[in-house]
């Protein structure tokens, strides 16, 4: 959910879709719009389902049906999708990078 561009880690997530699918055996549902929309749309298949733009009131509905939320962003400090997932009680997967959220989660995980 969100802007489909390089900084959000969309290409990295798509590159690793096979690994992700092998773990969960569930289709990856991608919601959002942006510069990489055509790339995502072209990969629409049984493994990837592209649903486009979501209205704000549709976000909790989609999250309530989600098995997990993947956060692949390279740059965000505290992405709204992370907050939405937490609010809905949905597990989240943060693909490690040099962003503040990844570092913070790694830090609290190591201390736990």
UniProtKB/TrEMBL annotation:
Record's InterPro entries? Answer: Glyco_trans_1, Glycosyltransferase_grp1
Q: Name one GO molecular function term.
A: glycosyltransferase activity
Which Pfam families does the entry mention? Glycos_transf_1
Q: Which domain of life is it from?
A: Archaea
User: Where does the Glycosyl transferase family domain lie?
Assistant: 1-95
Name of the protein this chain belongs to: Glycosyltransferase (Type 1)
Q: From what organism does this protein derive?
A: Pyrobaculum aerophilum (strain ATCC 51768 / DSM 7523 / JCM 9630 / CIP 104966 / NBRC 100827 / IM2)
